[in-house]
Structure formats: C-alpha cells, structure tokens
C-alpha cells in the first residue's frame, strides 16, 4: 500500500470490505478522522493534513469503492448505514475506547451525518465538522417544508445545483463521459467549475475507476432519502463549514439543521465546493478551533450549549 503523504498506512477490515487507512501526526494528541467524498480519495486532504499534524493524530482513509479500498459491486453495498459502519470500524481501530473528532467533505460528510445520527454516536464521535455535504434526510425534510410553505426558491436552487445527480441515477449513462473526458481533464474541469488553480489538484491514479464506482453512492441513497426522509437527530456537536460559492451544495439547504443538531456552529468560507484543496489552511483552522472548543466545554473550561454562529 502506498500514500503520497507521510506517516503510516494499514488496512482495517469491516465485514467483506478492507479499508486503506493512513495515519500521521501527534500520537499524543486528539484523534481527527478525515473522510473524503466523490470522486476523491484520502488524497483530498493532502493540503489540509500538514496544518493539523502538530496538534492532532490525523487519520484519513479511502472510502469503499475508492482508491486502495475494496470496491463492492452491488449498489446496495453503498447504502449509508454500510458507509457509517466503515467509519465506525476505522474509529474503533485507531482510537479504541476514546471518541474521535471527524472532519468530512461532500459524500464523506453525508456518510458522517449518517454515523452521528446513530444511537450512542457520541461515545465514539466527540465532534463533527461538515464541509459541503448535507444529511440527506434533513435535506428531504427541508425541501418538503419549503414546498408546503410555497417557498420554492431554496429547493429550486438546490435542485438546479444537483441536476447532474439525475443523470447519475441512470446506469451506464455517465460512465463513458467520466472515463473518457472528466477523469482525463479533472484539474481543468475544477478550474472551470470551482475557479480552482489546476496546479493544486492531485488526481489519484484510480480517478477514472473512482468516478464510475462512486456513482453507486447516488443510486443507493438519494431517491430513498429525499422522497422518504427519516427523522434523524444527533447530540454530537456539529460545525457546518459553509462554502459560500459552492455550486453543488447550496448553503440555504442547511436552514433547518438546528432542529436536528441543536449543538451547532456555522462558519462561512469564501470558497467553492472543493475548499479542502483551495482553502486548506482555513478548513484546518476552523476544524481545529472547533475541536478545542468542544474539548474545553467537556472539561468545564467554557460555557455549555451550542457554539455561536460566525463567519470566517
């Protein structure tokens, strides 16, 4: 197993899935687990990790279907409970008996939302910083409320932003464009889509496969969660990092999040969707500050209750 980052690499097994896990940083510090989204691997965090390693034990991993981890073939193997189970398996292996802090982006954040809303999650997850990835059930509930109130603007804006996911639902339709064009021109696409400096983008050698395999995430979860949303609550402290120029996940979709996660902080970053690449230091700083605030509250050094909303 190889990684372009420093530190150690190992494999963690969860049922039939082997996960490629990478560890770096201060073994005496609090553990922070980083979860990537589509179509990335743990390499998404390569610019963020150096800002965290002095203070934290930093753990990242390739999600199932990506990078060096197992690639299940069935769509049902990509359902959110299975992905949350992977996260818990990593947590239990790297920090047995002590909860970790989670930082996640895009689908990694969707997966982490599933985990923090599980009963007893707080015994394994001390805090969760979410970047550009909603809880799909919360999003479905919000869209239903907005439409019921005849306030269509927000749901319409998110529907337009998520229009590509409709194409991803159709087996085979997106496969050739992803393999033949997007995977070969990914830095250029991110420059167009996100105004991202292509020189900062480090595509994984598995990118074409990761793009296609990751389509199962969309097929396994979106229709069920949005059309039959569950009531999903968490008592884990949550920080939303809202990318203010995000073309894929509109900040308005988090309008009702306090209902589901009452211990909530909101922070804004003047960034597009891939802020862990373009604004790595900002993401690391906000995540670290939130961890320290949560730890201070746990040990009685700060007031209890939700953190105040703010903008970076």
Uncertain residue segments: 1-5, 307-312
Q: What share of the residues lie within helices? A: 25-40%
- What's the N-to-C terminus distance? 37 Å
CATH topology: Rossmann fold
Instruction: Enumerate how many helices there are, as a single number.
Output: 12
Shape: globular
Structural class: alpha/beta
Pfam family, one: Abhydrolase_1
InterPro entries: AB_hydrolase_1 (IPR000073), AB_hydrolase_fold (IPR029058), Epox_hydrolase-like (IPR000639)
Keywords: Hydrolase
GO molecular function: hydrolase activity
SSE blueprint and pairings:
Elements: E1 8-14, E2 17-25, E3 31-35, E4 57-61, H1 80-94, E5 100-105, H2 107-116, E6 125-131, H3 136-148, H4 153-161, H5 164-168, H6 175-182, H7 186-194, H8 207-213, H9 215-227, E7 238-243, H10 257-260, E8 264-269, H11 275-278, H12 280-298
Parallel strand pairs: 3-4, 3-5, 5-6, 6-7, 7-8
Antiparallel strand pairs: 1-2, 2-4
Give structural notes:
This protein is of the alpha/beta class. The protein has a single domain, classed as 3-Layer(aba) Sandwich (Rossmann fold), CATH 3.40.50. 37% of the residues lie in helices and 16% in strands. Strand 1 and strand 2 (17-25) form a beta hairpin. Helix 1 (80-94) packs across helix 2, helix 3 (136-148) packs across helix 9 (215-227) and helix 6 runs antiparallel to helix 8 (207-213).
Short descriptors:
8-stranded mixed β-sheet, Rossmann fold, alpha/beta, disordered C terminus, disordered N terminus, 16% strand, 312 residues
Question: How would you concisely characterize the structure shown here?
Answer:
This protein is of the alpha/beta class and 312 residues long. The chain has 12 helices and 8 strands. Keywords: Hydrolase.
